[in-house]
Amino acid sequence: MHEDVFLVRHGHVEGIDRPHFRGRQHLQLTAAGVQQAEQTAAYLHRVARIDLVVSSPLTRCVTTAAVIGQPLGLAPVPDEGLIDRDYGDWQGRSFDEVRTDDPAGAAAWQADPTADIPNSEAMRALADRAGAAFDQLVAKHAGRCMVLVAHDTINRALLLRALGLGLDHYRCLRQSPGAVSRLQHDGERWVVESMNQTAHLIPARSRAG
Fold first, then answer.
1. Does residue 127 register a pLDDT over 90?
2. According to the model, what pLDDT value does residue 187 have?
3. What's the rounded Cα separation, in Å, for the pair 207 and 199?
4. Is the pTM for the entire model greater than 0.70?
5. Residues 24 and 58 sit within 8 Å (Cβ to Cβ)
6. Are 179 and 197 a contacting pair, CB within 8 Å?
7. Count of alpha carbons within 13 Å of 155, Cβ hemisphere only?
C-alpha cells in the first residue's frame, strides 16, 4: 500500500519579500498568505483524502493548517519537531542588516547553509530533529494520509533527506509560500513525487478573467 505525506509551506507573512530571519517569531499570515492557504486547501482536497494535519506550533503554520483542516473537521496537531530554526543573534533581523553588521558571518552563511550563526540552533541539529519528527509521525500514523505544514527550512531538510542529499544541496531546492511537495512510500523507501508545486496559487486578479 502506498502511503502519502504532503509537505506544505505556510502562507505569506511579512519578512519574506524583504527577507528577514523570521525563525521562531509568531507571525500572522498576510491577506495574500490567507488566500494562499485557502487555495492550497482546495488543491489538497481535490487530490487526496486527508486523514491528519500536523503543524509547526508557530502561528503562521497553525493558521495555514487550520484552513486546510477546517472543511474536513480536522484540527491541526502541533509538533515541536517541525518548528523553524532558532536564528540566535540574527533572529528577527533583515538580511541587509546582518550583512552590514556581520559581513564575515553573513558571507560564510551565504556560502554554506551549515555555517554557524551566533547563539543559534545548528542547521544539522534542525535536520536531525525534523527527520526524527517525521519518522515518529509516519510510524504512529502508518497508512494514513498526512499533511505536514512547516517552514522553508524544515521542508527543504526533509526533502533532501528523502532524496539522499546532504545539506550542502540546501540552496538547490525552493519552497515557496503555500507550495506543496508530495512524498510517497513505495513499500521500500520514500519517493519524492513532486516538489514545490505552486500552480494552484492563482493571484486574485487572474481568477476574474
1. yes
2. 84
3. 13
4. yes
5. yes
6. yes
7. 32
